[in-house]
Amino acid sequence: MDKTFESAAAAVADIPDGVSLAVGGFGLSGVPLGLIGALLQQGTTDLETVSNNCGVDGAGLGLLLMAGRIRRTVGSYVGENREFARQYLAGELELELCPQGTLAERLRAGGCGIPAFYTPAGVGTLVAEGGLPWRYDASGAVAVASPPKEVRRFGDQDYVLEEGIVTDFALVRAARGDRHGNLTYAASARNFNPLCAMAGRITIAEVEELVEPGELDPEQVDTPGVFVQRVVEVGVAGKLIEKHTTRARTGADAL
Asked: Please, where are the H alpha helices in the chain?
């Protein structure tokens, strides 16, 4: 039952090229930076990532993106990343945009064994009707567009059919975890991490603090160990802040 690995590099060593990868985090909160860095170092490429956003320039998944390791991504927000925009518009990266709540539910559904579900989000838009540019060619023309999705009426409202997401691997970050893979997240760092952990066939968790089985209060466990296959302790060093917002000090504060 001991699922621990001695390093992030060892935990991701068997991830091959061409796999799909669900990655937790929101902006730079709760991002598995250690595991992403290990993937970068070992040279894994041709990846399809599923994440709320694809990191930022120079951090998170943005590192793999900058190195040309991601061929396709599924996400709901692509701002804060100039290289992402450049690759997408140049036809170097395929992008499947998905409403944020729908993306969360697609990951949860996949983890629960639910193949598809109906949602009102996206009805009457290109999300349902098809035609969203997934990939451009070098001339700027749309090379691959999203297909139309099934729309069905329940009561007096239309709903669009969305498919659950299951990925080959998942990378998540937790504040605390035990050797059995039970995880607890800190505040907003919870975000997409529990959902990604459910969606991966093999889920790898980096934890800031590794504890022994029984030390975590069962009522505080956010991800049960049944969803997690590997755990590695990475500590808290290297955590990043996406945006620094400050004000000028005045009066007594300036002393």
From this structure: 8-12, 33-42, 61-66, 82-89, 100-112, 126-129, 193-199
Domain locations along the chain: 8-115+164-233
Which tokens sit at 138?
Answer: 């070098």
CB 54 within 8 A of CB 194: no
* Backbone φ/ψ region at 119: left (φ over 0), alpha (ψ -120 to 50), beta: beta
> How many angstroms separate the CA atoms of 24 and 185, rounded?
11
> 70-127: per-residue pLDDT in tens?
999 999 988 778 999 999 999 999 999 999 999 999 999 999 999 999 999 999 999 9
According to DSSP, the β-strands at 157-163 and 116-119 are: antiparallel
Length reported for the chain: 255
User: What's the topology of domain 8-115+164-233?
Assistant: Glutaconate Coenzyme A-transferase (3.40.1080)
Helix (H, G, I), strand (E, B) or coil at 40: helix
Is 167 within 8 Å of 52 (Cβ atoms)?
no
Interatomic CA distance for residues 215 and 102, integer angstroms:
35
- Residue 12: predicted pLDDT: 97
Which pairs from 145-153 meet CB under 8 Å and 24+ separation? 146/96, 149/122, 151/123, 152/118
Question: Model confidence at 184, in pLDDT bands (50, 70, 90)?
Answer: very high
